[in-house]
Amino acid sequence: MTTLAPGRARAVRQQGPKKGPSPLDRLRRNGVMVVAMFVLAFLFLPVLVVVVFSFNAPRGRFNFAWQGFTWDNWLHPCAAPGMCDALRTSLEVGLLATLVSTALGSLLAFGLVRHRFRGRTPTSLLVFLPMATPEVVMGASLLTLFVNLGVQTGFATIVIAHILFNVSFVVVTVKARLAGMDSRLEEAAMDLYANEWQTFRRITLPLAAPGILAGALLAFSLSFDDFIITNFNSGNTLTFPMFVWGAAQRGVPPQVNVIGTAMFLLALVAVAGSEVLRRSRR
Amino acid sequence: MTTLAPPLAPEPEVEDDEGPLPQGRRRWVPYLLLLPGLAWLTVFFVVPMLALASTSLQTGSLGEGYRLTWRFATYSDALSTYGGQFLRSLLYAGTSTLLTLLIGYPLAYAIAFKAGRYRNLLLILVVAPFFTSFLIRTLAWKIILSDDGTVVSALQAVHLLGENGRLLATPAAVIMGLTYNFLPFMVLPLYASLEKIDGRLHEAAQDLYANAATTFRRVTLPLSVPGLVAGTLLTFIPAAGDYVNVQFLGTPQSSMIGTVIQSRFLTVLDYPTAAALSFILMATVLVMVVLYVRKVGAKELL
Fold first, then answer.
1. Which residues from B are below 8 Å from A108, CB to CB?
2. pLDDT over threshold 60, residue A7
């Protein structure tokens, strides 16, 4: 069949617009799209379940079987004891970790892309290694450090850990943006008597800004969703994923699904908003 | 690939180590930029790794304290006790990486070449489910795969699953969970590679009488190797160390190495064994990364 294909495709093309492609050709041409749609459906199946079960009114502790529709979970999201505190902790950790890791990571990216210096390769390696480290190992090593130093694990150690695993991802994101930038723009600015600081401030930074923003968003979502590393370094502090993990043993309240759905919707709105903004600027 | 790649996809940052390094005041600029980040990475990544290495060679107990006794036997003991969990982790992670590749490639391909103006929309749709927290999504699979769920009864109806057959608490469920959770890490790098391919190459291949399959095998696939390598690593590494999927979708009897490390560290407080296991996992992953990257030939990952 594959040996016949080119001849037939050619024949179809030569016949031109008079006769459309046969259904078989159409399927062959769009087959990959059909598969892709199935994969997307696979990706969305659990999200659908999360959304549906956010309206469930479970009779027992377990929100595993559909028992009846209710708005209660959405009207009283904080009714699940402890959940909103955990959520607030996660937001605080996420914001702090994002702020610091974006700053550190962007500086690293600028240094790596825009400068040549001795020790560049080891620096790149040190940035790459945390991403190649399984999360359990990173969590375990940090806990070892904190135990050895006699540091009580808690809010601060969670933030430290999150900054650590975020930095490399920020570097990669910002680096990608900087590498795609036309360095002639900066040279032009220098030719027009801008000094280094002015060039950076007026040319480099605005051009790099989308990459930095993307890095920050990635950092926040990684931090907000992290469970494995947090589990090692959280002490008695409860982040939202830690709350869900604990609740999974005792029975997950449906309010957890409300938060999951809300996060999903928020992300969609944010992405759609930025897309609209991008189009209107053009 | 090696003959085609350089002129078509020039590496964005070509390191020319030939020229002289900058002199004078400018020489210090890069180090100032790097200092804070490198300091953080050193204090909270390198030093903890050394602490972990030291711990793995210590003996003692929590009450009496640990002393460095260079006891390498901890490693062999850990391997002989937890070899099963270790191999299972590699097997599960490997299988799910292969599956993400098999289902992720068509998706990435469709977005890159067939989506037209819906490209951005589809990319957003790939990422969107992952804003619902990792744990919540995995718990949702627990509902989907549950014994009285639709999937199980459907499979029983077509006799793919026995009368008492189940999906939850089986290796299949764990592998599916891993495949699901790390799929975007495969799709996005693959897409990034595919998207860079010049469409004229496909036309050229067709003009030279290559059919669709040959065009894919000789043009598209080789050019997507960097994305394939990156995607494989980004999927395999977290999957090998994961213990969430096996906790929610598997059974305690079929735990993975992440489960063991976690419980040795946090529940049993057997630090040396946990540290040794962490190092074995880390070393295995790194060796596999190096071998794989060498074999496939994508040197510049970052």
1. 33-34, 37-38
2. no
